[in-house]
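Collaborator request, handled under Task 6.
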Amino acid sequence: MSDSTAGVASTASAPSVPASSVSSVPHPSGAFPSGTGVAGAATARRRWARIALRGLQVLLALFFGVAGALPKLIAHPSAVESFDELGWGAMGMYAIGALELAGAVALLVPVLQSVAAVVLSALMVGAFVVQVTVFDGQYAATPVVLIVPLALIAWGRRGHNAELVRLVPSVRRRG
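Structure tokens returned to the collaborator:
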């Protein structure tokens, strides 16, 4: 048997399934095969959305950790000056820096990411109020801009909140 004949023989023995029926035939589990038809396209979009959301989380975690928390935790002169002007001093600066660092780390922990985004959003609301009232709105746009992706993360990862509730013993229902 020649090479070209062997190829024909192997394809002839395989069952033939029309390409149009592949996307309309569900798997025994009830799911449609991924990568085919409309269901496959939706699966691919969801996968890319998850990847984009994870990338956004990593970027925000880096931003809050490096640009937000680090200057406060190492007492960079610009952070010290700002907190002295606020009247909060070193303790306020370290507390805000610790909150930002904890939020940055929590953005990367699956069970905490939605809650972390909500808490960091609340922190950004406070930063906005401080920027407007104390610093004449000089950098007021920054916290507002950060709230948008944080809200997207909080909404996109909200499914993990049920996991978190199950992990906290005092929140469990008593039966």
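The cover message to the collaborator said: "DSSP finds eight helices and no strands in the chain. Residues 37-73 form the longest helix (37 residues). Please let us know whether this matches your experimental observations."
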